[in-house]
């Protein structure tokens, strides 16, 4: 049984007074427990759209999206939301921590929506997770007093505190220097391995992509296997205005 499966997925969005815009097409991806998948793609290639789908935030326009072999499109939105809360953890480039709340208060947030022991033991679970990411001495620190690497560790603790089976990381080292980024990735890899969770990392950085076990690139909404992620040129994965965009929308305009 696979954890997550996309089969021939297309995502189109309506354009006022125009043909629908195709953002993803023919995407096939299977993620198994313990998998470490990396996806590179330049600005506008459809990464956020794909991430939203992997995180069950958006549904395919056509094609199949299955979680635990259950067609996500047949689920009521409440069930999808609960599944996302309990089984999927998100890590972003900008750590998205609540300012004015301590590290522990930030890490506890996902457990506020849990039930049973996870809810009753939430403070302890949050503290244990922060200890696991090396922040035992900063439990009461506010985000503003933490370094970038420490803030990302709080965000990792928050993402993992419910023991999700799938972790989605969107440019997790994008706001960190090289060395801090590597140590954050080391930690993430370690914890993911310990828990046999699956990790999908979306990144512009070939060095981060190379850490995965299976590599893909997203070009104009099409996902293809990448055999040698270290050989991906900057031009392909580059971000920002110098790299240009990658969509039909840009081409059409
Ligand atoms: N609802 C929408 N309506 C119109 N265009 C959209 C919509 N959603 C996405 N797009 C376009 O589809 C393309 C892919 O979007 P997406 O946000 O997935 O790209 P991305 O690879 O995450 O880009 P970036 O790295 O710059 O964030 C972009 O050109 C975007 O403008």
Automatic annotation (TrEMBL):
InterPro entries referenced in this protein's UniProt entry, alphabetically: AAA+_ATPase (IPR003593), ABC_transporter-like_ATP-bd (IPR003439), ABC_transporter-like_CS (IPR017871), ABC_transpr_LolD-like (IPR015854), MacB-like_ATP-bd (IPR017911), P-loop_NTPase (IPR027417)
Keyword annotations for this protein? ATP-binding, Nucleotide-binding, Transport
Q: Does the keyword Nucleotide-binding apply?
A: yes
Q: Tell me the SUPFAM superfamilies matching this sequence.
A: P-loop containing nucleoside triphosphate hydrolases
Entry annotated with the keyword Transport: yes
For this UniProt entry, which residues form the secretion signal? none
Name the source's superkingdom: Bacteria
A Gene Ontology cellular-component term: plasma membrane
Q: Which PANTHER family match?
A: ABC TRANSPORTER ABCH.1, IMPORT ATP-BINDING PROTEIN
Name of the molecule in the record: ABC transporter ATP-binding protein
Q: Which organism is it from?
A: Labedella gwakjiensis
